[in-house]
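quick one
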Amino acid sequence: MFFEKYDPLKKEMFSVLDKDGKVINKEEEPDIDNDTLLHMYKTMVLARVADIKALQYQRQGRMLTFAPVQGQEAAQIGPMAASDKKDWLVPAFREAAAMLYKGATLKQNYLYWFGNERGSHFDEGVNILPVNVPIGSQINHAAGIAYASKILKKGEVVFTYIGDGGTSHGEFHEGVNFGGVYDLPMITIIQNNQYAISTPRAQATKADTLAQKAIAYGIPGILVDGNDVLAMYRVSQEALKRARAGEGPTLIEAFTYRLGPHTTSDDPSIYRKDEEVEEWKQKDPVDRFRKYLTNKKLWNKDKEEALQKELKKVVADTFKEVEKTGQYELDEVYDYNYETMPKDLKKQKEDYLNYLKESEGE
Ligand SMILES: Cc1ncc(C[n+]2csc(CCOP(=O)(O)OP(=O)(O)O)c2C)c(N)n1
Ligand SMILES: [Mg+2]
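structure w/ thiamine diphosphate:
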């Protein structure tokens, strides 16, 4: 019923908050306890502060290339807050906020972008797959986990993320289609941040919305204001309900914007106008949620100041620790993707170690 109310072919967009954080869809305002609301907000701010600091470290030559998340925090925190611990997160490469909410540590996040594979080694019970850079392949990994969850009756739902550009890749089609055929507990979130590096959304596909691609797979697809954390939470609740009832996957298009560069090696001023960025800044997901919490008397200026101060210190201390201990052995690149390393990878590692030994002898 819920999904039928918003037709992606008519570009109907689901939202709960307006750009000033006021509730415009009271009926759909999710019932979230105050502790969770505050935890959601604090994680959004942590992701934001960590992002801004990492950009500075990168410009100082202390951090390698990374993909900033700024502007997309709501599209990531809403779904993660609606999920259970046992559910899975299968990210692409711009999901730092989702990963932090789901239980990855900031240290792990920084280690990854520092080039250290230990950043992909999550704690036991933290159901997150490593960052996935090859566009689209994560969708098939997600379908595989969801298939296993269904066969083994584990009750785990899989959330996976992809960008607007990624939806033109074959693996997006293969994974989402497979999920539809087998009614898998799989929720695919397209973060339509309007660009694939410098390629604008209009050149990614002729389709009016990305959510409408769901129609071809016979599953619900919905266009959501991706800068509205409550809308993202609410829509995920409905998608989770379907998945847990064995009704199959859902496709969610989170309409959002990447406020920063594609990665630290990109200069977006070459392909987009300042006015466009300014326009999206007015819809900043963190500001909107802060206004909502302030209206609810859960937040104020003093709390904001204290949080900013605390998180800046957490981020600076974590980065110093990563700088000190982040060095790694080259062969570690083989170690963290499988619980039991497959034979061919073992062989690759052995060959590589032999190669290193031989080159030392030269
Ligand atoms: C298979 C593959 N082809 C090309 C690339 C290079 N590449 C990295 S990010 C990117 C654009 C992705 O755009 P989108 O899917 O919109 O995600 P966003 O970066 O906007 O989050 C490309 C082409 C890649 N990583 N993998
Ligand atoms: Mg994009």
